[in-house]
Amino acid sequence: MKVRLSARFTPFIATALSLLGAAAATAQEAATAPAAATVVKRSLFQVLQDGGLIMFPLAGFSIAMVWLIIDCSQRTGLKRLMPADDIEKLRNSFRSGDYVGAYQGTLDNNSVVNNIARVGLVTVGDGKNATEHSISESIAQEQSKISNRISYLSVIGVCTPMVGLLGTVFGMIDAFESLGGGGATQNTGALASAIGHVLVATASGLFVAIPAFMSFYFLRNRLMGGMNEVETEVGNLFRKFPYHLAEGVHIGDQELYANAPNWAEGGAEMAGAPAH
How many distinct structural domains can be found in the chain? Predict the structure, then answer.
């Protein structure tokens, strides 16, 4: 029985031994042969260098983007738009009817709520409609000042991908020039590496554009919400203003240029008097 079993499994044993021998020989050859390819680790700075000279304007765009995000984030915050101290001073002055003091208080800090309230106080002598119109225009102007800064983030988001693509196009031109010279036919790996390098510029442009666009929309919406809060606060200050008692009153030190027409003083005999 034992002899039959050994004879039956002899071909399988022989095949297994031959496979083991072949595997051992292959492992020995692999150990003695030099490595066919080695992975070279490169730093981020070395990778960015592959983008070429176009990386310098992209670096400038990235620095400008970071500065704009920080600056506009501060400008669109409620603490900057309507500081608590400024709101409290305005409320106290309006409660006591000290509108001249309220005007002087708006000069202490150049905040958005102070600028808008100051415009309203200057025009209270012209009536309710003129005051509300001036406040609305001032709100639009203050919002436009900050919105113009935020819009530069949109410009960066549009320009940086195109700048990166321009760098990639220049790199591709050089790569295909080497292809026309026959160098690529001898070493296709070098051509593939060159193409991979020039794509760094495009990737860098997109890397700057994406956060620029995201910050643009976020800060724009944040500004709109903050200005709505400022408009509500200023509206509450002027809601019960006694315009009938302030008629003809001029608050502030701004010079008024318009005066009575000169022909009204000397009659129709004065030169330049309009014909009736």
Answer: 1
Residue 268 resides in a domain? no
Q: Is position 77 within any domain? A: yes
**pLDDT at residue 255, rounded to an integer:** 75
Contact in structure between 217 and 157 (CB atoms under 8 Å):
no
The predicted pLDDT at position 173 comes to 77
**Whether 187 contacts 217, CB under 8 Å:** no
Contact call for residues 149 and 72 (beta carbons, < 8 A): yes
Mean confidence (pLDDT) of the chain: 79
Query: How much is the pTM?
Result: 0.72
Burial (CB count within 10 angstroms: exposed 0-12, middle 13-18, buried 19+), residue 201: buried
Q: Are 167 and 201 in contact (CB under 8 A)?
A: yes
In angstroms, what CA-CA distances link 258 with 234, 246, 255, 262? Answer: 28, 19, 9, 11
26 lies in a domain? no
Is residue 254, in this structure, part of any structural domain at all?
Answer: no
Cα gap 108→86, rounded to integer Å: 9
pLDDT at position 16, please? 45
Full residue range of the structural domain in which residue 235 is found: 43-249
For 27-50, letters b (16+ CB in 10 Å) and e give eeeeeeeeeeeeeeeeeeeeebeb
Rg (C-alpha) for the chain, rounded Å, is 38
